[in-house]
Amino acid sequence: MTYNPYHIEGVDRKGRFLVTCDHASNMVPPDLGGTLGLPDADMARHIAYDVGALGVSRALAAELDSPLIWADFSRLVIDPNRGEDDPTLLMRLYDGSIIPGNRHADPVERERRLDAYYRPYHSALESLAEARGEVAIVSVHSFTRQLRGRPTRPWHVGILHAWDSRLSDPLITLLEAEPDLTVGRNEPYPGHLPGDAIDRHALKHGRNNTLIEVRNDLIETERAQEHWGRRLAPLLEAALARVPD
């Protein structure tokens, strides 16, 4: 089977959203030998991909009757949710783990990975967004409950946004009304990194957008992922209906 750095599902769906999953996969492409020299335990951690995020994205996109695009390469290969000039684009150390396959990656190798994986994904994402007109981009991620040596994170779900919070504000309000959820605004991360995927495909084009972070211990199983996709879908529909014209 020919390797492709991204996949699109439900391209003919008629919904108003475009669901994206930047950190869907812990795949190391065949032309890198299928490994970065890390043990399997590290490749199964949040450092390599967003655990559970792809399953949530698939369920969410289906419920919204909207397409999904996801990147099929590990964030450790090259991070599709960073700008091309971001110093964390190609990580050599992450949450206590050294990435051997990146230790000697020079500017030539960095550019090769941009051309082979990163740029095809972003080109396809932008083409998909352009083809859908007034689309709302929903980027799905997950976060670990605790980084090594750091305090535990109390949130069940975080909503990240930059200055354009037209969709995120009503979504946060709706999530905060759920009695069993602790919701973070721009938690556990800041809501904007220049050149990140939302900046590139939503903010620069005036498209409605939000980034959803679900704590990964809540979405470890397929059943839990489907539950969160079904739970988030009507809240997103209701939030979009509250966005001013």
Could you please describe the fold and organization of this structure?
The chain is α/β, with parallel strands linked by helices. The chain has one domain (6-241): Aminopeptidase, CATH 3.40.630. It is 30% helix and 16% strand. It has 6 helices and 9 strands. It has a 7-stranded mixed sheet, sandwiched between helices. α2 packs across α6. It is globular, with a radius of gyration of 17 Å. The model has no long low-confidence stretch (mean pLDDT 95).
Strand-helix topology:
Blueprint (H helix, E strand, L loop, with lengths): L5 E4 L7 E5 L18 H4 L9 H11 L4 E4 L21 E2 L2 E2 L8 H25 L4 E8 L13 E4 L7 H9 L6 E3 L11 H5 L7 E7 L6 H20 L4
Parallel strand pairs: 2-3, 2-6, 6-9, 7-8
Antiparallel strand pairs: 1-3, 4-5, 7-9
Helix pairs in contact: 2-6, 4-6
